[in-house]
Design brief:
Length: 387
């Protein structure tokens, strides 16, 4: 695909809903602003905007509604909301004089991308996961380029394959900075730090399985171990009692606002496998046991985790077969083998796309095709043309 687009004066970003869509949009906004390009954000009611740090970004809100898995009445209401959002987005795009629309997936992006395409604007899509999301599948025909974060991407129709360009998923600067510091390999008899995180909403299954697994570890490992665990909801007291009972030091919180520091200190991570989580593990260069969220759309978290596993940066444990005994065995084996952890940390870091924001901005500005590389669909799965 030849690069013929001219540098835009203003770019509209279509993103909303979860942080998985908003974080890369924010990173792109920061990069575009640094290049002197004006940015507008078109989001839904849930999108909180980019805050004071990016006050120069105009923020417009539109109606939007998800339709996947909903009943007929809800689908009709969602369709009406999407229609209203489309009309609102057309007006916003006209008023802000955007020349390019970048969609970050999820249903809040649909009205704006459609409105931009119908106005004749250039459309770029960014897909964070290893499976093309349903919104991006629907919008793929409108896009000139689809920026991806993994070498293998499922759910791509055959006639859209030449649009794929590998850029990676931008991560926060503080996370990327962790990877610049050497991984602290556990020393013989030294302290061990285990970080347990479940994404923005936590993972309730970790509240039960991880403490039970820790209790089964050999006493010498438990004596050296400190667990830093994100505990959603009001389960903190109960989880603390479990760790107290087996004599393990612990730091629990419903949300960690110092994740970069905790990642820097961690020798091993137990986590979900959302796109942002996997990108941050790679950028930080931290080995992880990943338990994909089983209800994720199209099981995309399994694909995300598998990519890091294939790179040598982690281990996958499906939730369906997760139990305290199996997790204890895996943790004991890893924590007792510092060389294995150090090698996985190096492999994770090697798999990171550290210039993802820059490369994505280059695509948006028409300066490159994404490091000259194309992402490729997964083979042998039968999902390439899934709709």
């Amino acid at each position: 695909m030849a690069v013929t687009a001219k540098r835009p004066n203003k770019v509209a970003l279509a993103a909303g809903g979860t942080g998985g869509h908003m974080f890369p949009a924010q990173a792109l906004a920061r990069e575009l602003l640094a290049r002197g390009i004006a940015v507008a954000l078109v989001t839904d009611a849930r999108g909180g905007g980019f805050g004071a740090e990016l006050a120069r970004v105009e923020t417009f809100r539109i109606a939007a509604g998800g339709m996947a898995g909903a009943g007929l009445v809800k689908q009709l209401r969602s369709a009406a909301a999407l229609g209203l959002g489309y009309l609102q987005a057309r007006g916003h795009l006209k008023r802000c004089s955007a020349e390019v629309v970048v969609g970050f997936g999820g249903y809040p992006s649909v009205p704006t991308v459609l409105a931009g395409a119908h106005r004749g604007l250039r459309v770029v899509l960014h897909e964070q996961n290893s499976v093309l999301g349903r919104a991006n599948r629907m919008l793929a025909g409108r896009a000139g380029i689809i920026a991806t974060c993994f070498d293998k991407v499922e759910g791509v129709a055959p006639d859209q394959l030449d649009k794929l360009r590998l850029t990676g998923n931008p991560v926060r600067a503080a996370i990327a900075a962790v990877g610049k510091c050497p991984y602290v390999q556990p020393g013989a008899g030294g302290s061990l730090n285990l970080l347990v995180v479940g994404g923005s909403q936590g993972a309730r299954v970790f509240n039960e399985v991880v403490p039970a697994a820790i209790a089964k570890l050999p006493e010498d490992l438990r004596r050296r171990l400190t667990v830093h665990q994100q505990v959603p909801g009001d389960a903190g007291t109960a989880v603390a009692k479990l760790y107290d009972a087996c004599g393990v030091s612990h730091h629990l919180a419903s949300f960690f606002d110092d994740v970069p520091e905790r990642l820097a200190a961690a020798q091993l991570v137990v986590s979900r496998a959302g796109a942002s989580t996997v990108a941050e593990l790679a950028a930080a260069g931290r080995p992880a046991v990943m338990v994909p969220y089983p209800s994720a759309t199209d099981d995309h978290q399994t694909g995300n985790a598998q990519a890091l596993v294939e790179a040598g940066g982690g281990w996958l444990m499906p939730q369906e077969s997760l139990d305290a005994g199996g997790l204890a065995e895996r943790l004991a084996s890893l924590l007792a083998n510092p060389a294995v952890l150090a090698r996985a940390a190096a492999c994770a870091r090697a798999a990171a796309h550290l210039d993802a924001a820059r490369d994505l901005a280059d695509l948006v500005c028409g300066l490159s095709n994404g490091n000259g590389r194309s992402a490729r669909p997964d083979s042998g799965t039968g999902k390439e043309a899934a709709a």
